[in-house]
């Protein structure tokens, strides 16, 4: 990491592992990185907002989904740091990455509820994937986080 970025703080964030009835994971393709990379819903925590409320808000803002049931709050927080070429662009240069609290949730609605054409769209497309494939679709700077999440989700399937 470039020395000028080392002092930047990490942004508080949340992420949602959304599982359908077949235990497949919801992922979406970002508008600003439409290559082969997909991600789970995630985003920042607003001032005076608790992590769970932020997770529900982000899920609704990004996907229109509100029909969920909490399965598990992952105790550890996971951190990623942006590559140098993105620091200074993303989040107006205020942060070098995110420290995220993740929640595993069950989607309890009908797929007609899912709408990524939101007020401020972030995604081009969405799909359900097998948990095993999660690390195949992640952008490289989030790969370690996705490996840790995959491990945590496997624990609830036992």
Descriptive overview:
- By secondary structure, the protein is α+β, with helices and mostly antiparallel strands.
- It has helices at residues 51-63, 134-137, 143-157, and strands at residues 10-19, 25-30, 42-44, 68-81, 97-107, 123-129.
- It has a single domain (3-157), classed as Nucleoside Triphosphate Pyrophosphohydrolase (Alpha-Beta Complex), CATH 3.90.79.10.
- The strands form two sheets. It has a four-stranded mixed sheet with strand order 3-1-5-4. Strands 2-6 form a two-stranded antiparallel sheet.
- The protein is globular, with a radius of gyration of 15 Å.
Instruction: Count the beta strands.
Output: 6
**Number of contiguous helices:** 3
Strand arrangement in the largest pleated sheet: 3-1-5-4
Radius of gyration: 15 Å
> Percentage of helical residues?
10-25%
Domain count, please report it.
1
CATH class: Alpha Beta
- Give the overall shape: globular
- In terms of per-residue confidence, which ranges show pLDDT below 50 for 5 or more consecutive residues? none
Distance between the termini: 39 Å
As a percent range, the share of strand residues is: 25-35%
CATH superfamily: Nucleoside Triphosphate Pyrophosphohydrolase
Structural class of the helix and strand makeup?
A: alpha+beta
Topology record:
Layout (H helix, E strand, L loop, with lengths): L9 E10 L5 E6 L11 E3 L6 H13 L4 E14 L15 E11 L15 E7 L4 H4 L5 H15 L1
Parallel strand pairs: 1-5
Antiparallel strand pairs: 1-3, 2-6, 4-5
């Amino acid at each position: 990491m470039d020395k000028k970025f080392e002092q930047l703080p990490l942004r508080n964030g949340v992420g949602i592992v959304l599982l359908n009835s077949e235990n497949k994971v919801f992922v979406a393709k970002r508008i600003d990185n439409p290559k082969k990379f997909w991600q789970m819903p995630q985003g920042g925590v607003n001032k005076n907002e608790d992590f769970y409320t932020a997770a529900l808000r982000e899920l609704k803002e990004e996907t229109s989904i509100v029909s969920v049931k909490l399965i598990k709050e992952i105790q550890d927080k996971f951190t990623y740091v942006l590559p140098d070429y993105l620091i200074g662009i993303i989040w107006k240069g205020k942060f070098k990455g995110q420290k995220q609290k993740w929640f595993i949730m069950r989607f309890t609605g009908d797929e007609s509820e899912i709408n990524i054409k939101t007020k401020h769209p972030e995604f081009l497309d969405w799909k359900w994937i097998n948990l095993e494939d999660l690390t195949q679709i992640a952008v490289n700077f989030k790969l370690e986080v996705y490996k840790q999440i995959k491990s945590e989700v496997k624990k609830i399937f036992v």
